[in-house]
Backbone:
């Protein structure tokens, strides 16, 4: 199966409500789509979201990395030389993990089609269904409480609550949400780097002392501050999950060796795709650290790739794949079935993506 052509396109999908974190506010998903065509007629699909505030990858950067580095290296290659092609994607340009992830998932899609097996089976096939949480944006406490109740009405029983940079208000936000949803709902929080280490410990311990029952806190401090992350891990009652501190397998090794976090959030856009995500997952297994599989604000092609990975491996004990359910429409044909919190992976060969409605080609 030889790669004959690669096309780039763009999609724009409005969100149901604006998505707000300590790092950014977004009203729509504006992603780059990759179609990898082959001489057998099989097409592999990839997707990358521009998340400048999180990864540094803008739309232009993703297109540039693909057009100038990744695509020229892939054209003419045989999908069956899979290991070579995987290495090529990772080595043909420095950084640019989102563009690499888009190419990586399209190639896994094709490799699965070549051997007529769904990718999640190829990778381990631990299960065919997973349950996601849903994210509540950071807003005024009463608005977050309303959003949380709405999420419960949609059937979710695990909420990922975004917090901000104001400690008093953050405690109020969590109090309002806990009061509105009752004791049985799982609450996890994501500070997206907003706090200082000592401040984080104070806020988290205050939240636990008030009986707010948090499952874990995601990325309480700056991405680069591993010492600070470890300080929070060592001193807070609440378990700590590393997100922005872990992009590459090398980052993961540092966090694992230093025991700087209790859990790791693996996202395809941070690590450059399934090839590297598998390395992080294996390292985490060796250290006995469970993982969350997460996403950026992404539509269904790239989240679908994360579903394939999550269904393959037992190490993913937490699922944050709510990108598609935060969108007001789904232009992606095929792939996993998203029924609110229940996600069922496709049993088609590869990743089961059949096309994209309203794709704007960029060539
Ligand atoms: C969408 C997902 N639940 C989520 O919250 N991801 C964020 C980053 C999303 C973004 O800014 O695009 C996270 O875990 O930090
Ligand atoms: Mg996060």
Residues:
């Amino acid at each position: 199966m030889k790669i004959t052509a690669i096309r780039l396109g763009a999609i724009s999908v409005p969100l149901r409500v604006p998505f707000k974190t300590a790092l950014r506010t977004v009203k729509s998903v504006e992603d780059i789509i990759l179609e990898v065509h082959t001489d057998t007629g099989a097409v592999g699909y990839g997707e990358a979201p521009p998340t400048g505030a999180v990864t540094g990858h803008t739309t232009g950067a993703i297109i540039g990395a693909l057009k100038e580095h990744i695509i020229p290296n892939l054209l003419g290659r045989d999908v069956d030389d899979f290991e070579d092609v995987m290495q090529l994607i990772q080595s043909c340009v420095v950084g640019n993990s989102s563009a690499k992830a888009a190419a990586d998932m399209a190639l896994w899609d094709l490799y699965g089609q070549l051997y007529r097996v769904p990718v999640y089976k190829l990778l381990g096939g631990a299960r065919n269904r997973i349950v996601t949480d849903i994210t509540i944006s950071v807003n005024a406490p009463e608005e977050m409480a309303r959003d949380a109740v709405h999420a419960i009405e949609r059937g979710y029983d695990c909420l990922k609550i975004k917090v901000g940079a104001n400690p008093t208000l953050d405690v109020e936000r969590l109090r309002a949400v806990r009061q509105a949803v009752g004791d049985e709902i799982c609450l996890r929080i994501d500070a997206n780097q907003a706090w200082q280490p000592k401040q984080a410990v104070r806020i988290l311990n205050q939240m636990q002392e008030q009986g707010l029952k948090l499952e874990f806190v995601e990325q309480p401090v700056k991405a680069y501050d591993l010492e600070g992350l470890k300080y929070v891990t060592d001193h807070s009652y609440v378990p700590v999950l590393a997100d922005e501190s872990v992009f590459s397998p090398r980052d993961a090794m540092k966090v694992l060796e230093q025991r700087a976090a209790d859990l790791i959030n693996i996202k395809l856009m941070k690590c450059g795709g399934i090839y590297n995500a598998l390395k992080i997952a294996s390292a985490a297994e060796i250290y006995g650290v469970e993982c969350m599989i997460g996403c950026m604000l992404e539509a269904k092609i790239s989240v679908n790739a994360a579903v394939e990975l999550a269904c393959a491996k037992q190490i993913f004990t937490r699922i944050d794949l709510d990108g598609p359910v935060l969108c007001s429409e789904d232009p992606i044909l095929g792939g996993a079935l998203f029924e609110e919190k229940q996600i069922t992976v496709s049993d088609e060969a590869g990743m089961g993506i059949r096309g994209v409605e309203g794709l704007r080609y960029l060539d």
User: Anything to note?
Assistant: The CA atoms of residues 56 and 228 lie 22 Å apart. DSSP finds 13 helices and 17 strands in the chain.
